[in-house]
Amino acid sequence: MRGIGVDAIEIRELTKEYASRAGAVTALDQISFAVGEGEFVAVVGPSGCGKSTLLKILAGLLPTSSGEARLRGTPIAGPRRDIGVVFQSPVLFPWRSVLDNVLLPVDVQRLGRDRYEKVAMDLLALVGLTGFEHRYPWELSGGMQQRVAITRALVHDPAMLLMDEPFGALDAMTREHMNLELQRIWLEKKKTVLFITHSIPEAVFLGDRVLVMTPRPGRILEDVAVDLPRPRSLEVMNTPEFGRYARAIRAQFAVQGALDG
Amino acid sequence: MTNAKNVSLSILLLIVSLSLWEGIVRFFEIPIFILPAPSKVAVALYRGLESGLYLTHLKVTLIETVLGFIAGSALGFLLGTGVAMNRYIDYFLYPYIVMFQSLPKVALAPLIVIWFGLGLSSKVINAALVAFFPLLVNTMVGLRSADEDRISLMRSLAASDRQIFWMLRLPNALPFIMAGLDIAMIFALIGAIVAEFVGATSGLGMLIQSMNFNMDVSGQFSVLLILSVVGLVLNRAILLVRRRVLFWDPSEKNAVEAAEVEMAETRRVPARIPAKERST
Question: Where are the domains of chain B?
């Protein structure tokens, strides 16, 4: 909670180019957007639109080519301790128990286990994994593993969560369930979330806003505010309003497709 | 039921083949210095054990093997870590390591004995030289095989290189390292025996050599029997440690079979492919 008016994420004319054998490839082309403190912003786009690159830049894992990227007012200069990242795969360490996996950020940042073990247990309860603390990753289903990953991203109480298609590898049923869970966690914790996905319904269901990205070069085509009441139930997906949002976003890609052809 | 049946069947098979061996040797009157009957081997084994002769030499060989194993593994681990983590070591040392790799290490035994004498040190050094390679390669590959996503995760938490090594790369390499230790143990035994062949004052290898000069073939057979038991026990000991260390690795369930395959082959390539990510 910094001063009023400072955005959680602020991106201005950010460009990222990769050198490749065929010459420079522009992954992100002069993108600009801002995410307010506590806001849930979904980024949707087809593969190759640079959304993962964007997340890696925000996580401090990749440098920018030009433009500005600030988190809570300070320019990004490498990894920071006030963010939590959730990747597409759970990326758990098989030699650590569930509890030890959750406490990984605490170990890395030397925050003191005794203080954070309680936090970890409470978070595991929040995601419905009480009783699994001393199990090992291979004993868990894919959905449970991803819940461990989310818990791990939250344990050091970061100001914001960066999520890179976290439910992309799950089956449709589990995925819907995880969407509900994530909304519940977010409503409780009120963290800033940047959620990357290639599913339009998922983006509309979860986001306060949906950023629509197009590939080659990666650009933000549209910034859609989703005005649906919270908490949203799965039934909201059957409402005309939801359909309108989804259609409007899909239409963006159709236009883009026509331009490509 | 089936297990008990299998056990009794395999015991029966053993009895049948031993009797067959005994019968053939007696029937064709094969001289004892060519092929001794199992009964003669058993007598030789009993005499050797009873007089304490075998145990004295066994102790020597065991000490050589274990010391060689420890020294060779430690060296292999350190060098493997160096090559994997430091590009200068990798650049300047690796070509020589590859050259050394293609050399049959036991061929060095005569030199080693000349340099380090007939006593313990030459055997330990030879055992270490033979044992060190599987550990070097496996440590190197294990440390380098850390999953890209896991490294990204550690980096996103602002982990230092040192933390990434201790918390990610090393545990990740453990299955490889344990597989390397498995092979190294057997290799160390080979190294010690070969060095004893070349020149020694005691040890089971020296015993075999002197029995050979005396045409005591049944004695040799009995020592070979002891050696195979020693090899088996050493291998199982590593396996036991491995199971405890790698309790988290689901592929460990196949460790017994894997260990047997490793014993059968003398491989140069890493003895293990990375454990598949179990995300779904």
Answer: 1-30, 36-264
Cβ atoms within 10 A of the Cβ of B254, count?
10
List, as own/partner pairs, every contact residues B245-254 make where C-beta atoms lie below 8 angstroms and the sequence separation is at least 24, other chains included: B245/B174, B245/B178, B246/B174, B246/B175, B246/B178, B248/A94, B248/A95, B248/A96, B248/A136, B248/A138, B249/A94, B249/A95, B249/B174, B249/B175, B249/B275, B250/A138, B250/B275, B250/B278, B251/B175, B251/B275, B252/B175
3-class SS of residue B275: coil
**ipTM of the shown complex:** 0.86
The 10s digit of each residue's pLDDT in B226-242 is 999 999 999 999 999 99
Tell whether B195 is within 8 A of chain A (Cβ).
no
Q: Which chain A residue has the Cα nearest residue B150? A: A91
Q: Is the pLDDT of residue A132 over 70?
A: yes
Scanning A59-141, the segments in alpha helix (DSSP H) are 98-102, 104-108, 113-126
Token digits of residue B211 = 């029995």
Rounded alpha-carbon distances, angstroms, from residue B246 to B139, B238, B242, B255: 15, 12, 6, 10
Q: Read off the pTM.
A: 0.81
Q: How far is B163 from chain A (nearest CA, A)?
A: 7
Alpha helices in A110-260 (DSSP H): 113-126, 142-154, 172-189, 200-206, 240-260
Q: Which residue from A minimizes the CA distance to B168?
A: A93
Residue of A nearest to B250 (CA): A138
* Superfamily name with CATH number, domain B36-264: MetI-like (1.10.3720.10)
For residue B66, what is the enclosing H or E element? Answer: helix B53-85
The pairing of beta strand A83-86 with beta strand A160-164 = parallel
Q: Do B280 and A169 touch (CB under 8 A)?
A: yes
pLDDT at B14: 93
**Cβ A109–B278 below 8 Å, yes or no?**
no
Tens-digit pLDDT profile for residues B205-230: 999 999 999 989 999 999 999 999 99
Shortest Cα distance, chain A CAs vs residue B240, angstroms: 18
Question: Pick from A87, A95, A108: which is nearest to B159 by CB?
Answer: A108
CA pseudo-torsion sign A125, A127, A130, A132: negative
Residue that is written with structure tokens 């990769």 in the block: A18
List, in order of start, the domains of chain A with CATH numbers.
1-69+160-261 (3.40.50.300), 90-158 (no CATH)
Lowest mean pLDDT among A24-28, A204-208, B206-210, B257-261: B257-261
Q: Taking CB atoms and an 8 Å limit, are A169 and B171 in contact across chains?
A: no
Q: Identify the closest residue of chain A to B162 by CA–CA distance.
A: A108
Interface test with A, best of B154, B247, B279 (most A CBs within 10 A): B279
